User: Fold this.
Amino acid sequence: MRYLILAEGFSADPHYGKTARGVLRYRRADVVAILDSTRAGETEEGVPIVGAVAEAMRYAPTTALVGVATQGGRFPPAWIEILRDCIANGIDVENGLHVFLSDDPELRELAEGNGVALRDLRRPPADLSTATGEVFEVPGTIVLTVGSDCAIGKMTVSLELDLEARRRGERSIFVPTGQTGIAIAGWGIAVDAVVADFIAGAAERLVVEGARRGGDLLWVEGQGSLVHPVYSGVTLGLYHGSAPHLLVLCHESGRDEVEGAGGGPHPLPSLRELVDLHERTALPRRPAKVVAVALNTRALDDAAARAAVEAAAEETGLPADDPVRFGAGRLVDAVLAARRASAARAEG
Amino acid sequence: MRYLILAEGFSADPHYGKTARGVLRYRRADVVAILDSTRAGETEEGVPIVGAVAEAMRYAPTTALVGVATQGGRFPPAWIEILRDCIANGIDVENGLHVFLSDDPELRELAEGNGVALRDLRRPPADLSTATGEVFEVPGTIVLTVGSDCAIGKMTVSLELDLEARRRGERSIFVPTGQTGIAIAGWGIAVDAVVADFIAGAAERLVVEGARRGGDLLWVEGQGSLVHPVYSGVTLGLYHGSAPHLLVLCHESGRDEVEGAGGGPHPLPSLRELVDLHERTALPRRPAKVVAVALNTRALDDAAARAAVEAAAEETGLPADDPVRFGAGRLVDAVLAARRASAARAEG
Assistant:
């Protein structure tokens, strides 16, 4: 695949360009151009930014990725023109929004006429059902990232820990639960897009599929937060449905309120309270322990970042680190040590 | 409305006939017949049971209600024939399953041809969105029923407490969140049928609508359980989205495991632990207190029921009662006392 990332108006925005940035970071080699007319002529991580689809054609993209995830997932109307241009130029489209391209009769007809595929990454499988309990038979170790808020890096932490574990020779796999993770890994289900009754069923299916793909260390991408007034239902359904043995608690340094939720302020509990909350809300059938804290220190300088990591470790009594800034080694050490301890307990 | 309840094969089953039984209990005056060929000629709460739609016509039903909710909500194939008969006889159909009647082209065509309406009670409104925070501006007192498991009587408790509060002259309203509640109250959203991202948004909309309908004591029908491996996501999304001030904890005496969930056994925490779990998982923005325990004692004799109520009160330190068996007075007293205490704190 040769990706053209569609990020019109958003390529510079760290929050709204989440899917674009994720693919750019973890599938850099497959990205040939970015479309954002407000930055045409610039580059982003060495990738040329173009102002129009016609201009992108010199890089021979095969697939256009809708790289913007707005709240509620609606489609900016101005984009329809860009999508038409992609289809007319024979480029497949992958879309991560709530609104499905293949539900638009005009785009679908255009796609069929041009022999182009429309892939809606958030469209749930048609045969989803409620959870069956099959997840409790998965033999591997299941590790879920949880966190204080949305958009603080839970997916990134899961990906970085998976990469490090694979470097160490583990049969490790990243289990994608959102549109960006799906775009990166090439499989998965957006658990926040399924019928509410099926959240745990979707999570269970993903873990079972991760094991089937050969993983015995399964890094499940977390979603939302147990204290998020909008998305907590998805978070708990994913938590119980994926039945993790171990949790990695993610937090962005300095954030003390849920961001972007109405009716607030919605204060965040302390890290220590979050550890406690997550362990108490585990299913009785599958107790889970928080084994490490992953801190996102992007807003801090190096010295402040080191101090924040140390403070998080001291507050929680757990290993802490920023895996993007300082490497994933310490967090993977903590997870593997917890796995060994649990295996020893099971044998003893 | 004159209801014909469709309960083929299930009218005697207390679990699977949930919707049938709910409507029978709370809209008894509107039910003219029950269809269940396995019990034709019998009666249920004084309502005649018939073996076929043709036979039901002598009671002049206007609306047939699909009174069965199977796990996952699929439609038993044998029912299609019964539905065809209803439509051919000019009877509207209300359906509470996941599968929507109006998505079936044949049934839809038949309904149009016969001037009959197909109402899918679980079909979410088309314009749902994520929660906005509007719920935090609702001036009334919001009371959510929570519980240890599914199908233990959370809806019934909400309905009984609402009835008792209205008898006392309160501007009280029942806020329906599932198909049976919707069938009983004539409005509502099945929150487990919405897109996962919109659970809290749906719950919020229902509370706002309850206030708009004149309620300042809003009894929100709970769903699932925080410790249910299949449905906990819906439970937490409903909890946070409805932003209750007060909780009534529901439990069935003698139940010590989640019923009907695979991969178990899934042990239930004690009542005291459940009180603690629910108070700890409240949104920081809207702390909630469990103010009473509603016990379902249907499996016990009177003496054992009284002892179970007393034991629950002692274990939790909270007022406890079985509102169906012994009346809703004590539980409504507890809720109104908590509301007064909270108003006094707000003024003091």
Summary: The longest helix of chain B spans residues 329-347. Chain B touches chain A through 55 residues (CB under 8 Å). Residues 134-347 of chain B form a domain with the Rossmann fold fold (CATH 3.40.50.300).
